[in-house]
Specification:
The structure is a single chain. Helix 1 links the parallel strand 1 and strand 2. It contains 9 helices and 7 strands; from the N terminus they run βαββαβαβαβαααβαα. 46% of the residues lie in helices and 13% in strands. It is an alpha/beta fold and 253 residues long. Bound molecules: NADP nicotinamide-adenine-dinucleotide phosphate (NAP). NADP nicotinamide-adenine-dinucleotide phosphate binds next to helix 1 and helix 5.
C-alpha cells in the first residue's frame, strides 16, 4: 500500500513502539494522528483522546474517527500481565483484555465499514511472539495476543477483494517500558535468557512500514525470536520441553 499521503491513526502513539511507528509512518510521507489517553500531553502529533481501556470511550470517539476517514489503523496500545494465573487479579486481567483484544476489535469494527466503502484501507494489529510462543506465566497476555493474531488472520480472508487488507505484527522483544516490566512479572520463575536480544522500537517500526508498503499479511521477527516462533509452530513438543527446563513454579532463586 502506498504510504505517501495516507492518513494513519496509531493507538498508544505517545511512547514505545507506537511513537516509533508514528514517526516511521511520518517519515514515509503519511499524515499521522495518534489516539492517546492524554491528548493534551501529546505535542509531536495531532492527537485524539482515546482510552482503549473503556468501551464507552471508544464508542464516544467512534463518530469523530469515522468522519476522519483514516486509510491505515494501527492498533498498538497494550498492557502486559504476567505471573501465575492465580496471582493475577481478575480486575487486571479484564483491564488488559479490554485494551489488548476487545478494544482492538471494537475500534476495527468502528472504522472498517468506512474503509470497505471507500475500497481502500489497512488494519495493522500489534500481536506478539507471545501470541505464538506460549510461555508459563504468560497465560492471560498470550491469550490476548493469540486472539489478536487470529482476529487479524480471519479478517484478512474476509476482506479479500475489498481493497482493504491487514497486517499482523508478531512483535519480538522490543526495548520499551513494557519490556522493562518483564523481569518483575516473569523473572522469579522463568529464566529470562530465553527472551534475550530485544531490538529497538525504531528498528521494528521501520520493518512495520516496509511490511505495509509490501502489503504483507504477517510480519515475523528475525534471529533468535524468529527461531523460537518457528519451533513453537512446527515442533511444539521440542519448544515445550525447552521451556520446561527454564521454568520453576516454586521459584528459580
Ligand atoms: N515491547 C515488547 O517487547 C513487545 C513485544 C510484543 C508486543 N508488544 C506490544 O506492542 C504494543 C506497544 O507496547 P510497547 O512495548 O510500546 O509498550 P509501552 O511503552 O508500555 O507502551 C504501551 C502503550 O499503550 C498505551 N496504552 C496502555 N493502555 C492504554 C489505554 N487504556 N488507552 C490508550 N492507550 C493505552 C500506553 O499509553 P499510556 O502512556 O497512556 O500508558 C502506551 O502508549 C503493545 O500492544 C504490546 O503488547 C510489545
Amino acid at each position: 500500500m502506498k504510504i505517501q499521503g495516507a492518513k494513519v491513526l496509531v493507538t498508544g502513539g505517545n511512547r514505545g513502539i507506537g511513537l516509533a511507528m508514528a514517526r516511521a509512518f511520518r517519515e514515509a510521507g503519511a499524515d499521522v494522528w495518534v489516539g492517546v489517553r492524554d491528548a493534551k500531553a501529546m505535542t509531536e502529533f495531532p492527537a485524539i483522546a482515546l482510552d482503549m481501556g473503556s468501551r464507552d470511550a471508544i464508542e464516544r470517539a467512534a463518530l469523530e474517527l469515522q468522519a476522519m476517514e483514516f486509510d491505515i489503523l494501527v492498533n498498538n496500545a497494550g498492557l502486559l500481565t504476567g505471573g501465575l494465573l492465580e496471582d493475577q487479579s481478575v480486575e487486571e486481567i479484564y483491564a488488559m483484555l479490554q485494551v489488548n483484544l476487545l478494544g482492538v476489535i471494537q475500534l476495527t469494527h468502528a472504522l472498517l465499514p468506512g474503509m470497505v466503502k471507500r475500497g481502500r484501507g489497512k488494519i495493522v494489529n500489534n500481536s506478539s511472539v507471545s501470541g505464538v510462543m506460549n510461555f508459563p506465566l504468560a497465560s492471560t497476555y498470550s491469550a490476548s495476543k493469540s486472539g489478536v493474531y487470529a482476529f487479524t488472520q480471519c479478517l484478512a480472508q474476509e476482506l479479500r477483494g475489498t481493497g482493504v487488507s491487514t497486517l499482523v505484527m508478531v512483535t519480538p522483544g522490543v526495548k520499551t517500558r513494557m519490556f522493562d516490566e518483564i523481569p518483575k512479572k516473569y523473572g522469579a520463575k522463568l529464566d529470562l535468557k530465553l527472551i534475550e536480544g530485544a531490538i529497538s522500537a525504531e528498528e521494528w517500526a521501520r520493518e512495520v512500514v516496509h511490511a505495509v508498503e509490501d502489503d504483507r499479511e504477517v510480519l515475523e521477527p528475525k534471529g533468535f525470536s524468529g527461531l523460537g516462533v518457528f519451533l513453537a509452530r512446527h515442533t511444539p513438543g521440542v519448544f515445550n520441553r525447552l521451556v520446561a527446563t527454564k521454568y520453576r513454579r516454586d521459584g528459580l532463586f
